[in-house]
Specification:
With 464 residues, this protein is of the alpha+beta class. It has four domains: 8-204, no CATH class; 213-276, Multidrug-efflux Transporter Regulator, Chain: A, Domain 2 (Orthogonal Bundle); 290-332; 348-455, no CATH class. It is 42% helix and 14% strand. It contains 17 helices and 16 strands. The strands form five sheets. Strands 2-1-6-5-4-3 form a six-stranded mixed beta sheet, with helices on both faces. Helix 7 crosses helix 8. It is elongated.
Length: 464
Protein backbone atom coordinates (compact mmCIF):
# COMPACT_ATOMS: atom_id res chain seq x y z
CA UNK A 1 0.00 0.00 0.00
CA UNK A 2 2.04 2.89 -1.33
CA UNK A 3 1.62 6.43 0.03
CA UNK A 4 1.94 8.66 -3.03
CA UNK A 5 0.97 12.29 -2.48
CA UNK A 6 0.34 14.50 -5.52
CA UNK A 7 1.65 18.06 -5.45
CA UNK A 8 -0.67 19.84 -7.86
CA UNK A 9 -3.43 19.41 -10.42
CA UNK A 10 -2.71 19.76 -14.10
CA UNK A 11 -4.86 22.54 -15.57
CA UNK A 12 -6.40 20.12 -18.08
CA UNK A 13 -7.41 17.51 -15.52
CA UNK A 14 -11.07 16.49 -15.43
CA UNK A 15 -10.98 15.52 -11.76
CA UNK A 16 -9.16 18.07 -9.58
CA UNK A 17 -7.86 17.00 -6.17
CA UNK A 18 -9.25 19.30 -3.45
CA UNK A 19 -6.79 21.74 -1.93
CA UNK A 20 -4.07 21.36 -4.56
CA UNK A 21 -3.05 24.28 -6.80
CA UNK A 22 -3.46 24.17 -10.57
CA UNK A 23 -0.34 24.14 -12.75
CA UNK A 24 -0.08 24.89 -16.46
CA UNK A 25 0.39 21.58 -18.29
CA UNK A 26 0.33 22.95 -21.85
CA UNK A 27 3.90 21.73 -22.49
CA UNK A 28 2.76 18.11 -22.00
CA UNK A 29 1.03 16.57 -25.09
CA UNK A 30 -2.01 15.28 -23.22
CA UNK A 31 -4.23 15.27 -26.31
CA UNK A 32 -1.80 13.25 -28.43
CA UNK A 33 -2.16 9.97 -26.58
CA UNK A 34 -0.08 7.98 -24.09
CA UNK A 35 2.78 7.31 -26.49
CA UNK A 36 3.41 11.04 -26.85
CA UNK A 37 3.41 11.53 -23.07
CA UNK A 38 5.88 8.70 -22.60
CA UNK A 39 8.13 10.12 -25.33
CA UNK A 40 8.52 13.43 -23.46
CA UNK A 41 10.79 11.85 -20.89
CA UNK A 42 11.80 8.40 -22.09
CA UNK A 43 15.51 8.27 -22.88
CA UNK A 44 15.64 12.04 -23.31
CA UNK A 45 18.35 12.71 -20.80
CA UNK A 46 19.91 11.69 -17.52
CA UNK A 47 17.33 11.37 -14.77
CA UNK A 48 14.38 11.43 -17.20
CA UNK A 49 11.92 8.67 -17.88
CA UNK A 50 8.46 7.98 -19.25
CA UNK A 51 6.11 5.07 -19.66
CA UNK A 52 2.57 4.21 -20.69
CA UNK A 53 0.38 1.13 -20.27
CA UNK A 54 -3.06 0.32 -21.55
CA UNK A 55 -5.83 -0.65 -19.14
CA UNK A 56 -7.47 -3.31 -21.26
CA UNK A 57 -10.32 -3.89 -18.82
CA UNK A 58 -11.81 -0.43 -19.40
CA UNK A 59 -10.27 0.65 -22.71
CA UNK A 60 -8.27 3.39 -21.03
CA UNK A 61 -4.61 3.99 -20.38
CA UNK A 62 -2.16 5.49 -17.92
CA UNK A 63 1.12 7.24 -18.54
CA UNK A 64 3.81 9.21 -16.75
CA UNK A 65 6.81 11.30 -17.70
CA UNK A 66 9.50 13.43 -16.17
CA UNK A 67 8.74 17.11 -16.63
CA UNK A 68 11.04 18.45 -19.38
CA UNK A 69 11.51 21.79 -17.58
CA UNK A 70 12.12 20.53 -14.03
CA UNK A 71 13.47 17.00 -13.79
CA UNK A 72 12.65 16.76 -10.08
CA UNK A 73 8.96 16.80 -11.03
CA UNK A 74 6.86 14.48 -13.11
CA UNK A 75 3.38 14.15 -14.57
CA UNK A 76 1.01 11.19 -14.20
CA UNK A 77 -2.10 10.77 -16.33
CA UNK A 78 -4.98 8.29 -16.05
CA UNK A 79 -7.45 8.27 -18.96
CA UNK A 80 -10.83 6.55 -19.22
CA UNK A 81 -12.90 6.75 -22.44
CA UNK A 82 -16.09 7.60 -20.53
CA UNK A 83 -14.86 9.35 -17.39
CA UNK A 84 -12.11 11.51 -18.85
CA UNK A 85 -8.64 12.00 -17.44
CA UNK A 86 -6.80 12.81 -14.24
CA UNK A 87 -3.63 14.87 -14.63
CA UNK A 88 -1.38 15.26 -11.59
CA UNK A 89 2.02 16.78 -10.86
CA UNK A 90 4.21 14.81 -8.44
CA UNK A 91 7.78 14.39 -7.33
CA UNK A 92 9.40 12.57 -10.23
CA UNK A 93 10.24 9.59 -8.03
CA UNK A 94 6.55 9.11 -7.16
CA UNK A 95 5.15 8.93 -10.69
CA UNK A 96 5.83 5.22 -11.17
CA UNK A 97 4.20 4.44 -7.82
CA UNK A 98 0.97 6.18 -8.78
CA UNK A 99 1.19 4.56 -12.22
CA UNK A 100 1.16 1.18 -10.48
CA UNK A 101 -1.76 2.12 -8.23
CA UNK A 102 -3.79 3.08 -11.28
CA UNK A 103 -3.46 -0.42 -12.72
CA UNK A 104 -6.86 -2.10 -12.85
CA UNK A 105 -10.06 -0.44 -11.68
CA UNK A 106 -9.00 2.69 -9.75
CA UNK A 107 -9.54 5.94 -11.65
CA UNK A 108 -8.80 8.36 -8.82
CA UNK A 109 -8.02 8.52 -5.11
CA UNK A 110 -9.39 10.84 -2.44
CA UNK A 111 -9.54 11.18 1.35
CA UNK A 112 -6.38 9.28 2.15
CA UNK A 113 -6.81 6.38 -0.25
CA UNK A 114 -10.55 6.06 -0.89
CA UNK A 115 -10.82 5.20 -4.57
CA UNK A 116 -13.42 5.39 -7.32
CA UNK A 117 -13.82 3.08 -10.31
CA UNK A 118 -16.34 5.17 -12.22
CA UNK A 119 -19.42 4.01 -10.33
CA UNK A 120 -18.48 3.00 -6.79
CA UNK A 121 -16.28 4.31 -3.97
CA UNK A 122 -14.12 1.89 -2.00
CA UNK A 123 -12.08 2.20 1.17
CA UNK A 124 -8.27 2.00 0.96
CA UNK A 125 -7.21 -1.56 0.20
CA UNK A 126 -5.63 -3.08 3.30
CA UNK A 127 -6.89 -6.62 3.89
CA UNK A 128 -5.17 -9.07 1.56
CA UNK A 129 -7.25 -11.63 -0.33
CA UNK A 130 -4.98 -14.68 -0.93
CA UNK A 131 -7.36 -16.13 -3.53
CA UNK A 132 -7.59 -13.01 -5.68
CA UNK A 133 -3.97 -12.09 -4.85
CA UNK A 134 -5.11 -8.53 -4.29
CA UNK A 135 -6.57 -6.39 -1.54
CA UNK A 136 -10.23 -6.91 -0.75
CA UNK A 137 -12.54 -4.31 -2.25
CA UNK A 138 -14.67 -2.91 0.56
CA UNK A 139 -17.29 -0.37 -0.40
CA UNK A 140 -17.49 2.95 1.39
CA UNK A 141 -20.80 3.17 3.22
CA UNK A 142 -23.47 5.34 1.56
CA UNK A 143 -20.82 7.16 -0.47
CA UNK A 144 -21.82 10.12 -2.65
CA UNK A 145 -19.67 11.52 -5.45
CA UNK A 146 -19.08 15.26 -5.13
CA UNK A 147 -18.67 16.93 -8.53
CA UNK A 148 -17.35 20.32 -9.58
CA UNK A 149 -20.93 21.50 -10.07
CA UNK A 150 -21.68 20.63 -6.43
CA UNK A 151 -18.67 22.64 -5.26
CA UNK A 152 -19.22 25.77 -7.35
CA UNK A 153 -22.17 27.60 -5.82
CA UNK A 154 -21.55 31.02 -7.39
CA UNK A 155 -19.67 32.56 -4.47
CA UNK A 156 -16.19 31.66 -5.73
CA UNK A 157 -14.25 34.42 -7.50
CA UNK A 158 -11.78 33.24 -10.18
CA UNK A 159 -10.08 36.66 -10.26
CA UNK A 160 -8.58 35.89 -6.85
CA UNK A 161 -6.91 32.73 -8.18
CA UNK A 162 -3.98 31.95 -10.46
CA UNK A 163 -2.54 29.13 -12.58
CA UNK A 164 1.00 28.25 -11.56
CA UNK A 165 4.00 27.44 -13.73
CA UNK A 166 6.35 24.49 -13.37
CA UNK A 167 9.37 26.79 -13.58
CA UNK A 168 8.32 28.68 -10.44
CA UNK A 169 6.47 25.91 -8.61
CA UNK A 170 7.62 25.16 -5.07
CA UNK A 171 6.44 21.74 -3.83
CA UNK A 172 6.71 22.76 -0.17
CA UNK A 173 4.77 25.99 -0.55
CA UNK A 174 1.59 26.45 1.48
CA UNK A 175 -1.52 25.30 -0.32
CA UNK A 176 -4.05 27.98 -1.28
CA UNK A 177 -6.66 28.77 1.37
CA UNK A 178 -9.14 30.02 -1.21
CA UNK A 179 -9.21 26.79 -3.17
CA UNK A 180 -12.77 27.27 -4.40
CA UNK A 181 -11.59 30.41 -6.19
CA UNK A 182 -8.94 28.30 -7.91
CA UNK A 183 -11.57 25.71 -8.79
CA UNK A 184 -13.69 28.46 -10.34
CA UNK A 185 -10.71 29.62 -12.43
CA UNK A 186 -10.11 26.03 -13.55
CA UNK A 187 -13.79 25.75 -14.54
CA UNK A 188 -13.60 29.00 -16.50
CA UNK A 189 -10.51 27.83 -18.37
CA UNK A 190 -12.32 24.61 -19.28
CA UNK A 191 -14.79 26.59 -21.33
CA UNK A 192 -11.91 27.34 -23.68
CA UNK A 193 -11.30 23.61 -24.25
CA UNK A 194 -13.28 21.87 -26.94
CA UNK A 195 -15.04 18.67 -25.90
CA UNK A 196 -14.28 19.10 -22.20
CA UNK A 197 -16.11 16.81 -19.78
CA UNK A 198 -19.19 18.55 -18.28
CA UNK A 199 -18.64 19.92 -14.78
CA UNK A 200 -21.32 17.65 -13.33
CA UNK A 201 -19.18 14.70 -14.43
CA UNK A 202 -15.92 16.09 -13.03
CA UNK A 203 -15.31 14.28 -9.75
CA UNK A 204 -13.79 16.37 -6.99
CA UNK A 205 -14.38 14.49 -3.75
CA UNK A 206 -16.26 11.81 -1.84
CA UNK A 207 -18.89 12.28 0.86
CA UNK A 208 -19.66 9.39 3.19
CA UNK A 209 -20.86 8.88 6.77
CA UNK A 210 -17.52 7.14 7.31
CA UNK A 211 -15.75 10.46 6.79
CA UNK A 212 -17.81 12.67 9.09
CA UNK A 213 -16.17 14.23 12.11
CA UNK A 214 -17.92 11.86 14.49
CA UNK A 215 -16.29 8.90 12.73
CA UNK A 216 -12.74 10.27 12.77
CA UNK A 217 -10.22 9.19 15.40
CA UNK A 218 -6.75 10.46 16.29
CA UNK A 219 -3.42 8.72 16.80
CA UNK A 220 -4.07 7.63 20.43
CA UNK A 221 -7.33 5.87 19.52
CA UNK A 222 -5.80 4.46 16.33
CA UNK A 223 -2.85 3.05 18.26
CA UNK A 224 -5.08 1.56 20.94
CA UNK A 225 -7.12 -0.27 18.31
CA UNK A 226 -3.91 -1.65 16.81
CA UNK A 227 -2.55 -2.80 20.16
CA UNK A 228 0.45 -0.46 20.07
CA UNK A 229 1.38 2.79 21.77
CA UNK A 230 0.77 6.16 20.17
CA UNK A 231 4.52 6.79 20.09
CA UNK A 232 5.04 3.53 18.20
CA UNK A 233 2.37 4.52 15.69
CA UNK A 234 4.00 7.92 15.18
CA UNK A 235 7.36 6.19 14.71
CA UNK A 236 5.82 3.97 12.03
CA UNK A 237 4.43 7.04 10.28
CA UNK A 238 7.68 9.01 10.50
CA UNK A 239 9.56 6.08 8.96
CA UNK A 240 7.06 5.92 6.12
CA UNK A 241 5.74 2.48 7.09
CA UNK A 242 3.40 1.68 4.20
CA UNK A 243 1.27 -0.63 6.34
CA UNK A 244 -0.14 2.34 8.24
CA UNK A 245 -2.98 3.85 6.17
CA UNK A 246 -2.90 7.50 5.23
CA UNK A 247 -5.08 9.72 7.40
CA UNK A 248 -8.41 10.74 5.93
CA UNK A 249 -8.12 14.29 7.26
CA UNK A 250 -5.82 16.63 9.16
CA UNK A 251 -7.61 18.60 11.86
CA UNK A 252 -5.68 21.22 13.81
CA UNK A 253 -2.43 19.81 12.46
CA UNK A 254 -3.24 16.30 13.72
CA UNK A 255 -3.84 13.21 11.62
CA UNK A 256 -7.37 11.81 11.72
CA UNK A 257 -8.45 8.38 10.45
CA UNK A 258 -11.91 7.11 9.59
CA UNK A 259 -12.94 4.45 12.10
CA UNK A 260 -13.78 2.10 9.21
CA UNK A 261 -10.25 2.50 7.82
CA UNK A 262 -8.78 1.94 11.28
CA UNK A 263 -10.83 -1.24 11.70
CA UNK A 264 -9.56 -2.53 8.35
CA UNK A 265 -6.02 -1.72 9.45
CA UNK A 266 -6.48 -3.70 12.66
CA UNK A 267 -7.84 -6.64 10.67
CA UNK A 268 -4.92 -6.48 8.25
CA UNK A 269 -2.50 -6.58 11.19
CA UNK A 270 -4.29 -9.59 12.63
CA UNK A 271 -4.12 -11.40 9.29
CA UNK A 272 -0.48 -10.52 8.63
CA UNK A 273 2.41 -12.96 9.02
CA UNK A 274 3.29 -11.42 12.37
CA UNK A 275 -0.35 -11.17 13.45
CA UNK A 276 -1.08 -14.83 12.81
CA UNK A 277 2.07 -15.79 14.68
CA UNK A 278 1.11 -13.61 17.64
CA UNK A 279 -2.39 -15.10 17.76
CA UNK A 280 -1.02 -18.64 17.82
CA UNK A 281 1.58 -17.81 20.48
CA UNK A 282 -0.82 -16.01 22.81
CA UNK A 283 -0.29 -17.13 26.40
CA UNK A 284 3.16 -18.63 25.92
CA UNK A 285 5.82 -17.18 28.20
CA UNK A 286 8.28 -16.83 25.31
CA UNK A 287 5.69 -15.94 22.65
CA UNK A 288 6.41 -19.21 20.83
CA UNK A 289 3.95 -21.03 18.61
CA UNK A 290 2.38 -24.19 20.08
CA UNK A 291 4.70 -26.48 18.14
CA UNK A 292 7.81 -24.49 19.03
CA UNK A 293 6.73 -24.41 22.69
CA UNK A 294 6.38 -28.19 22.67
CA UNK A 295 9.91 -28.54 21.29
CA UNK A 296 11.25 -26.10 23.90
CA UNK A 297 9.58 -27.96 26.76
CA UNK A 298 10.81 -31.33 25.53
CA UNK A 299 14.42 -30.24 25.21
CA UNK A 300 14.26 -28.34 28.48
CA UNK A 301 13.58 -31.65 30.18
CA UNK A 302 16.25 -33.43 28.11
CA UNK A 303 18.88 -30.79 28.80
CA UNK A 304 18.08 -30.70 32.51
CA UNK A 305 18.58 -34.45 32.65
CA UNK A 306 21.81 -34.23 30.68
CA UNK A 307 23.25 -31.33 32.65
CA UNK A 308 22.10 -31.97 36.20
CA UNK A 309 20.34 -35.27 36.82
CA UNK A 310 23.36 -37.31 35.70
CA UNK A 311 26.06 -37.26 38.41
CA UNK A 312 28.88 -37.58 35.86
CA UNK A 313 27.68 -34.42 34.15
CA UNK A 314 26.76 -32.49 37.29
CA UNK A 315 30.33 -32.56 38.56
CA UNK A 316 31.40 -30.61 35.50
CA UNK A 317 29.80 -27.54 37.00
CA UNK A 318 32.69 -27.48 39.48
CA UNK A 319 34.90 -24.52 38.68
CA UNK A 320 37.97 -26.57 37.67
CA UNK A 321 35.93 -28.35 34.97
CA UNK A 322 34.76 -25.13 33.36
CA UNK A 323 37.14 -25.18 30.41
CA UNK A 324 36.78 -25.12 26.65
CA UNK A 325 37.13 -28.87 26.19
CA UNK A 326 34.52 -29.67 28.82
CA UNK A 327 32.08 -27.12 27.42
CA UNK A 328 32.60 -28.47 23.90
CA UNK A 329 31.82 -32.01 25.07
CA UNK A 330 28.66 -30.87 26.84
CA UNK A 331 27.60 -28.86 23.78
CA UNK A 332 28.16 -31.93 21.60
CA UNK A 333 25.99 -34.08 23.84
CA UNK A 334 23.22 -31.48 23.85
CA UNK A 335 23.39 -31.22 20.07
CA UNK A 336 23.22 -35.02 19.82
CA UNK A 337 20.07 -34.91 21.92
CA UNK A 338 18.48 -32.54 19.41
CA UNK A 339 19.57 -34.53 16.37
CA UNK A 340 18.50 -37.85 17.84
CA UNK A 341 15.12 -36.39 18.77
CA UNK A 342 14.37 -34.98 15.34
CA UNK A 343 11.67 -37.58 14.75
CA UNK A 344 9.82 -36.18 17.76
CA UNK A 345 9.83 -32.72 16.18
CA UNK A 346 8.89 -33.70 12.63
CA UNK A 347 5.90 -36.05 12.10
CA UNK A 348 7.77 -38.33 9.70
CA UNK A 349 4.82 -40.59 8.87
CA UNK A 350 2.64 -37.70 7.71
CA UNK A 351 5.58 -35.94 6.09
CA UNK A 352 6.31 -39.04 4.03
CA UNK A 353 2.74 -39.20 2.76
CA UNK A 354 2.83 -35.50 1.90
CA UNK A 355 6.10 -35.85 -0.02
CA UNK A 356 4.72 -38.87 -1.89
CA UNK A 357 1.58 -36.97 -2.88
CA UNK A 358 3.61 -33.94 -4.02
CA UNK A 359 5.99 -36.05 -6.13
CA UNK A 360 3.14 -37.96 -7.79
CA UNK A 361 1.34 -34.68 -8.47
CA UNK A 362 4.42 -33.32 -10.25
CA UNK A 363 4.76 -36.58 -12.18
CA UNK A 364 1.10 -36.41 -13.21
CA UNK A 365 1.54 -32.90 -14.60
CA UNK A 366 4.62 -34.00 -16.54
CA UNK A 367 2.87 -37.07 -17.94
CA UNK A 368 -0.14 -34.99 -18.99
CA UNK A 369 2.09 -32.35 -20.56
CA UNK A 370 3.82 -34.90 -22.80
CA UNK A 371 0.78 -37.12 -23.42
CA UNK A 372 0.05 -35.61 -26.85
CA UNK A 373 3.66 -36.00 -27.94
CA UNK A 374 3.75 -39.64 -26.90
CA UNK A 375 0.42 -40.23 -28.66
CA UNK A 376 1.93 -39.28 -32.02
CA UNK A 377 4.40 -42.15 -31.83
CA UNK A 378 3.94 -45.81 -32.69
CA UNK A 379 1.38 -47.12 -30.19
CA UNK A 380 3.39 -50.35 -29.82
CA UNK A 381 6.56 -48.51 -28.82
CA UNK A 382 7.15 -48.26 -25.06
CA UNK A 383 6.69 -44.76 -23.61
CA UNK A 384 9.72 -42.68 -22.77
CA UNK A 385 10.15 -41.16 -19.32
CA UNK A 386 13.13 -38.88 -19.84
CA UNK A 387 10.94 -35.84 -19.18
CA UNK A 388 10.07 -36.74 -15.57
CA UNK A 389 10.96 -33.93 -13.21
CA UNK A 390 10.00 -32.22 -9.98
CA UNK A 391 9.35 -28.59 -9.17
CA UNK A 392 12.21 -27.08 -7.12
CA UNK A 393 10.21 -26.90 -3.89
CA UNK A 394 9.18 -30.57 -4.07
CA UNK A 395 12.72 -31.63 -4.98
CA UNK A 396 14.19 -29.68 -2.05
CA UNK A 397 11.66 -31.23 0.34
CA UNK A 398 12.45 -34.76 -0.87
CA UNK A 399 16.16 -34.03 -0.58
CA UNK A 400 15.72 -32.80 3.01
CA UNK A 401 13.63 -35.86 3.85
CA UNK A 402 16.36 -38.18 2.57
CA UNK A 403 19.10 -36.30 4.43
CA UNK A 404 17.24 -36.25 7.74
CA UNK A 405 15.21 -39.48 7.61
CA UNK A 406 16.89 -41.78 5.06
CA UNK A 407 15.07 -44.90 6.26
CA UNK A 408 11.61 -43.36 6.16
CA UNK A 409 12.40 -41.73 2.80
CA UNK A 410 13.49 -45.13 1.45
CA UNK A 411 10.03 -46.49 2.19
CA UNK A 412 8.33 -43.42 0.73
CA UNK A 413 10.28 -43.65 -2.54
CA UNK A 414 9.31 -47.31 -2.78
CA UNK A 415 5.66 -46.29 -2.51
CA UNK A 416 6.22 -43.65 -5.20
CA UNK A 417 7.70 -46.29 -7.51
CA UNK A 418 4.78 -48.64 -6.90
CA UNK A 419 2.14 -45.95 -7.47
CA UNK A 420 3.86 -44.65 -10.62
CA UNK A 421 3.98 -48.17 -12.04
CA UNK A 422 0.33 -48.81 -11.17
CA UNK A 423 -0.90 -45.50 -12.59
CA UNK A 424 1.27 -45.02 -15.68
CA UNK A 425 3.06 -48.37 -16.07
CA UNK A 426 6.26 -46.47 -15.32
CA UNK A 427 9.35 -48.67 -14.82
CA UNK A 428 10.88 -48.38 -11.36
CA UNK A 429 14.29 -47.54 -12.81
CA UNK A 430 12.85 -44.61 -14.77
CA UNK A 431 11.11 -43.32 -11.66
CA UNK A 432 14.40 -43.36 -9.76
CA UNK A 433 16.18 -41.67 -12.65
CA UNK A 434 13.65 -38.82 -12.61
CA UNK A 435 13.96 -38.38 -8.84
CA UNK A 436 17.74 -38.48 -8.90
CA UNK A 437 17.91 -35.95 -11.75
CA UNK A 438 15.64 -33.58 -9.84
CA UNK A 439 17.75 -33.85 -6.69
CA UNK A 440 20.95 -33.25 -8.64
CA UNK A 441 19.49 -29.91 -9.75
CA UNK A 442 17.87 -28.67 -6.54
CA UNK A 443 19.08 -30.87 -3.68
CA UNK A 444 21.94 -30.61 -1.20
CA UNK A 445 23.03 -34.24 -1.17
CA UNK A 446 26.51 -34.67 -2.60
CA UNK A 447 26.98 -36.71 -5.76
CA UNK A 448 28.51 -39.50 -3.70
CA UNK A 449 25.60 -39.48 -1.26
CA UNK A 450 23.06 -39.62 -4.09
CA UNK A 451 24.94 -42.45 -5.78
CA UNK A 452 25.13 -44.47 -2.58
CA UNK A 453 21.52 -43.89 -1.63
CA UNK A 454 19.90 -44.53 -5.00
CA UNK A 455 22.04 -47.64 -5.54
CA UNK A 456 20.16 -49.14 -2.60
CA UNK A 457 16.87 -48.39 -4.35
CA UNK A 458 17.75 -49.74 -7.80
CA UNK A 459 15.74 -52.85 -8.74
CA UNK A 460 17.65 -55.99 -9.71
CA UNK A 461 18.07 -56.53 -13.43
CA UNK A 462 16.20 -59.85 -13.41
CA UNK A 463 13.08 -58.34 -11.81
CA UNK A 464 10.23 -57.30 -14.14
Amino acid sequence: MSHVLPLANGLRTDHPVPGLPFIDDSHIPLDDGPEAIEAVGRNKGEGMWGRFDKNRSDGGWRAFTTDPLDHTLGWAVRYHPEHGRTVLLLHDGDTSGLHTQWDGEPLLFRAGGYWWNGTTWYRPGQVWDPVAQDYEQRKARMAVTVTATDMLDGRANPTRAYVGKVATFEPDATRPDNWLDHLALWAARRQEQGGALPLDQCVVDISSPELTGAQLIGAPEMAELGGITASTLRAYISRGNSEVPRPQAIVGGRDQWARAVADDWVESRQRSYEGVGAAMSAGDRDALSPGAAEVRDRFTADFQHALFDRPDMRKRWVLRHRNKESVAQIASELAWSVGAGLDQIVPTEHLGRTVRAAVLHDFAETVEMFADTEGDKDSEAPPEWWHLNLTPSVAKMLDWYIRCFPGEAYSTIGEIQRQAHTTWNMPAADTLHGLRSALSLDGELTEQQRTTYFALLEPHGDVD
